[in-house]
């Protein structure tokens, strides 16, 4: 581990390199490196620099606004926030998950599979595939989905269409591709019509085929350079996520399971309503993103990773056949109980993409999604907790309301927050192993971004900010003077400015 | 021979006692409006229905139709003025359509779309206004009140109560309720009152009903406000 690189001792005498903002991630973050005279990294940090604070301004609003208001945290996985909030406000109207009408439960699952599918497709094909197909230090002109479409048109088009399909699932269930409605307290506001169901069924077999193809592609990419892929930014960590009661992969509802680096169980089948007994958050002064950790292991050893790698590592099986076969193959490649390769996030993300496509087909063939019993009602409560597996990992929504139905307190732990420590560790590792002592070059700095990007961080969600994608690097000498500057503009043009 | 006015050159018949708004709507001519509904006494406060009558601007909902009037409605100048009025309504309160439960059913939003309002133009006031959620079934979000007084008139004229009133002047104007405590829970408002269903924005809401109508089935999802207004109000103006 590289904790010693979080804070350097002689910071004032070091050169500062800033990657700001980190590109091809959702939201706005920056990396700072402090280098000594020999270009050795003495300090590396991923800073999340924007802040909006949804937790505060939803106070004073009526609870039924939450699923629609809070989903505005994000334009990529709003459905996850929508559903986590909906699960929480179900409890406020006295409806526990087991009492949700069957049709509403299945429609929410369908909505969520569409969400995870489009988000995973977006991340792999649009954001990460340029790194994986062209190399981490490739020419910057190649590092975009446009270059992928030019050189690998089949893969690029499949990525675009897989994402589009997921968004169409969302649109059919919630009325809009982004920021629809759908889930309300105790259920859903509509079911699928036969025409909507048939429309989605038309292309689902093609989607499953393409999703399976994407798993084969990432396996080939990963295994063709196995030592590097297994080593790059790799961390031996704890993993946390929801699983089904029997340990199967679960994205919508389950108990909390956490395993350590050896695959030994730390927590299992924990009712997420008691999350506060197991997970706490630490604040550090240099970033707006908090650092969650498992209480039983403490701040230093209790941090964990969430997301596709955590879920595939943690689960005992997947309940769709093609994804299960892919999972077994994935686990076998490392020979260890847990796979720790950070770049394996991509592989597991695509296994989940395949799982989503298979699950969508199963649900589309289930008549319950066209049912009419959509809303349940129970006794009012004053506290609600909703937890869901968002594309990027476990997402916690926790609300308290008063007797007038007004939100008095809110706590959100978003997926990216849980990966905060891991992303910082990965940045430090890449900085130490790949940058130290080498001359600064733009492709080299992309290695840092590749490490961050593997986590598919949503910095907007984590800090509730909207990001920009251009990149700016500044090299500042030990006296604080700017000596070099690289700027990547919106159109991908690179400009070097010597000061 | 019946009496007539012209609106943008079109001959519109009317009967004595009708306003320009009555005559226009009965003839299928839409004049944008927010504070007007045919079943209540016209108020003329939102000014959106401002038309030009024989060279002079006045509110169509309060101005009586008189034989031979030449009324201008869809001139660029009037449309621009209406857009500015709507922009001022938006910036003066806190109207956040993306998360508002009234979105898709909101007349303020519908008028803004109709007028092709693409931005706020004016700086937002961000007023600090409270939500009164004290009533078990109805809530007031003062952030969205545009002081149209429809709830005031509906309570008095339809419900036979006197639950709402407008207090203060100018920038301090605000909606109040008829209770010593100032809270809705201490009034005789009932959720079935007309006053609860008449708000053109999301200021007066029936609790726990938000978002129950799916996208695609909301009032303005497929029709603009002029079509909806004519379809629902035209016959009432003819009465």
Which tags fit this structure?
heterodimer; A: 499 residues; alpha+beta; Cytochrome-c3 Hydrogenase, chain B; six-stranded antiparallel beta sheet; four-stranded mixed beta sheet; 16 helices; 19% strand; B: 239 residues; Ubiquitin-like (UB roll); Alpha-Beta Plaits; 2 domains; five-stranded mixed beta sheet; three-stranded antiparallel beta sheet; 5 helices; 10 strands; 23% helix
Please give a quick description of this structure.
The complex is a heterodimer of chains A (499) and B (239). In chain A, 41% of the residues lie in helices and 19% in strands.
- Radius of gyration of chain A (CA) equals 22 Å
CATH architecture of the domain at 101-234 and 341-373 in chain A: Orthogonal Bundle
Number of domains of chain B: 2
* Helix run count of chain A: 16
CATH architecture classification of the largest domain in chain B? 2-Layer Sandwich
- Number of DSSP E strands of chain B: 10
In what range is the share of β-strand residues of chain B?
Answer: 15-25%
Average residue pLDDT of chain A = 87
Query: What is the subunit arrangement here?
Result: heterodimer
Mind telling me the CATH class of the domain at 101-234 and 341-373 in chain A?
A: Mainly Alpha
The residue-averaged pLDDT of chain B reads 96
Series of secondary-structure elements of chain B, N-terminal to C-terminal? EEHEEEHHEEHEEEH
Indicate the CATH class of the largest domain in chain B.
Alpha Beta
């Amino acid at each position: 581990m590289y904790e010693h690189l979080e804070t350097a001792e002689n910071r004032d005498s070091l050169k500062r390199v800033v990657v700001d903002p980190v590109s091809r991630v959702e939201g706005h973050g920056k990396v700072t490196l402090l280098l000594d005279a020999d270009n050795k990294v003495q300090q590396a940090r991923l800073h999340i620099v924007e802040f909006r604070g949804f937790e505060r301004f939803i106070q004073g609003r009526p609870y039924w606004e939450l699923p629609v208001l809070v989903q505005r945290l994000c334009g990529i996985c709003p459905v996850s926030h929508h559903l986590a909030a909906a699960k929480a406000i179900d409890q406020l109207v006295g409806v526990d998950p087991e009492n949700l009408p069957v049709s509403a439960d299945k429609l929410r699952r369908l909505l969520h599979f569409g969400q995870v599918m489009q988000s995973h497709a977006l991340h792999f094909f649009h954001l990460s595939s340029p790194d994986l197909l062209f190399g981490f230090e490739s020419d910057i002109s190649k590092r975009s989905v446009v270059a992928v479409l030019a050189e690998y048109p089949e893969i690029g088009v499949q990525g675009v269409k897989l994402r589009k399909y997921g968004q169409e699932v969302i649109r059919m269930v919630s009325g809009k591709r982004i920021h629809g409605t759908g889930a309300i307290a105790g259920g859903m506001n509509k079911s699928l019509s036969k025409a909507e169901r048939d429309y989605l069924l038309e292309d689902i077999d093609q989607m499953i085929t393409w999703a399976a193809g994407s798993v084969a592609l990432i396996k080939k990419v990963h295994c063709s350079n196995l030592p590097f892929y297994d080593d790059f930014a790799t961390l031996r960590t704890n993993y946390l996520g929801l699983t089904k009661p029997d340990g199967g992969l679960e994205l919508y509802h389950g108990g909390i399971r956490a395993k350590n680096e050896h695959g030994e169980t730390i927590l299992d089948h924990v009712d997420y309503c008691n999350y506060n007994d197991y997970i706490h958050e630490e604040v550090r002064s240099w970033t707006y993103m908090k650092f969650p950790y498992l209480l039983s292991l403490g701040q230093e050893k209790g941090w964990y990773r969430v997301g596709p790698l955590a879920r595939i590592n943690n689960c005992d099986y997947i309940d769709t056949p093609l994804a299960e076969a892919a999972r077994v193959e994935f686990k076998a490649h490392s020979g260890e109980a847990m796979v720790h390769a950070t770049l394996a996030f991509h592989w597991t993300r695509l296994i989940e993409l395949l799982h989503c496509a298979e699950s969508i087909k199963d649900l589309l063939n289930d008549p319950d999604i066209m049912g009419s019993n959509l809303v349940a009602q129970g006794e009012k409560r004053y506290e609600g907790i909703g937890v869901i597996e968002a594309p990027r990992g476990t997402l916690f929504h926790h609300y308290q309301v008063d007797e007038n139905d007004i939100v008095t307190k809110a706590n959100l732990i978003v997926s990216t927050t849980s990966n905060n420590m891991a992303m910082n560790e990965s940045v430090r590792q890449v900085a130490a192993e790949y940058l130290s002592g080498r001359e600064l070059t733009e492709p080299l700095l992309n290695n840092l971004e590749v490490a961050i990007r593997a986590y598919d961080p949503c910095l907007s969600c984590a800090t509730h900010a909207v990001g920009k994608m251009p990149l700016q690097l500044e090299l500042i000498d030990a006296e604080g003077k700017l000596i070099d500057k690289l700027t990547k503009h919106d159109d991908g043009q690179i400009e070097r400015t010597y000061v | 021979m019946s009496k007539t006015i012209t609106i943008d050159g079109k001959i519109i018949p009317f009967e004595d006692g009708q306003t320009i708004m009555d005559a226009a709507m009965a003839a299928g001519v839409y004049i944008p409006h927010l504070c007007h509904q045919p079943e209540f006494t016209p108020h003329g406060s939102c000014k959106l229905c401002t038309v030009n009558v024989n060279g002079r601007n006045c509110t169509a909902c309060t101005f009586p139709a008189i034989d031979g009037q030449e009324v201008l409605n869809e001139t660029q100048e009037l449309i621009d003025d209406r857009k500015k009025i709507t922009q001022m309504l938006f910036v003066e309160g806190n109207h956040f359509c993306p998360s508002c439960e009234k979105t898709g059913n909101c007349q303020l939003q519908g008028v803004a779309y109709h007028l092709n309002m693409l931005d706020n133009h004016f700086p937002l006031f961000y007023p600090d206004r409270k939500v009164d959620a004290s009533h078990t079934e109805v809530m007031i979000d003062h952030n969205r009140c545009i002081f149209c007084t429809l709830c005031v008139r509906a309570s008095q004229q339809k419900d036979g109560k006197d639950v709402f009133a407008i207090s203060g002047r100018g920038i301090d104007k605000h909606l109040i309720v008829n209770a010593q405590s100032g809270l809705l829970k201490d009034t005789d408002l009932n959720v079935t009152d007309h006053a609860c269903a008449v708000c053109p924005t999301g200021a007066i809401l029936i609790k726990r009903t938000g978002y129950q109508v799916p996208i695609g089935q909301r009032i303005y999802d497929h029709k603009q406000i002029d079509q909806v207004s004519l379809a629902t109000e035209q016959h009432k103006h003819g009465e």
